[in-house]
Amino acid sequence: MHPLRIGSMSALGEEFRSAREARGLTLSDVAEQIHIRSVYLNAIENEDWPSIGAPVYVRGFIRTYARFLGVDAEGAVARFNETAPPERPTVAAVAAADERARSGPSVWAILLTLVAVVLVGFVGYEYWQYSQGNTSSAPVAETTAAPQPGGPGGGSQAASPLPPASPTATPTPAPRHQLTLRVTQPSWLRVTVDGTTQFEGTLPAGTVRSFKGSAADLLVGNAGGVTVVVDGRAVKPLGKSGDVVEQRYTL
């Protein structure tokens, strides 16, 4: 079935509302299936863009909502772009800047490496000189027999030393009450744990971040690029690449 194209003359929000009502769905029904809070879905249908936030989030919500309703997602985004206010650099631009920053070694990193090499060489030379001086001047100790208790022929025996106690291995507890995020594609994230925002920003691919608490609220700008692990177990995928998804986890 081809996507339903949104008419250019009618209001964008009204088209979303009509498509939803035609399916006999409430905002709560949609929110449960696409993991976007109903307050944001209602903002889309009323074209209340400031309630959602930056245009990059609005586009992600529009795209996800449109795919679910079977309407033309890219056409809806294009219509929003016609009236969208100017925005800050997108997630992709920030990720590209981060990638360029990581593409070459830092001058300070090179200087610190050279200083570390010089220090290691100096310490090694000092230790070599110290060991040479001890070898040449160390006196030879005479070996004398320790007197036995009770004199010659006594029945006393020297006490044998106790064997060293074997160390007891301490088991490493499995991670509990912990949310771990593995980023496979550059993505913007906001992580709120127990009501406090622990992180908000863009993470590059290959990043692994962990958060501890009782409950975590996660807002992801690129659902297909983030894998979530709760208390050591991977949960179901958040969504597709480019989708904006909000999810709550009880740890």
Task: Explain what you see.
There is one protein chain. Helix 2 packs across helix 3 (38-45). With 251 residues, the protein is an alpha+beta fold. The protein has eight helices and eight strands. 40% of the residues lie in helices and 18% in strands. Among the domains are: 12-83, Orthogonal Bundle (434 Repressor (Amino-terminal Domain)), CATH 1.10.260.40; 178-250. The longest helix is centred in the middle third of the chain and has 31 residues, at 107-137. The model is unreliable at 4-9, 136-147 and 149-159 (pLDDT under 50).
Secondary structure topology:
Elements: H1 12-22, H2 27-34, H3 38-45, H4 49-52, H5 55-69, H6 73-83, H7 91-102, H8 107-137, E1 178-183, E2 187-193, E3 196-203, E4 208-212, E5 215-220, E6 226-230, E7 233-234, E8 245-250
Antiparallel strand pairs: 1-4, 1-6, 2-3, 2-5, 5-8, 6-7
Helix pairs in contact: 2-3, 5-6
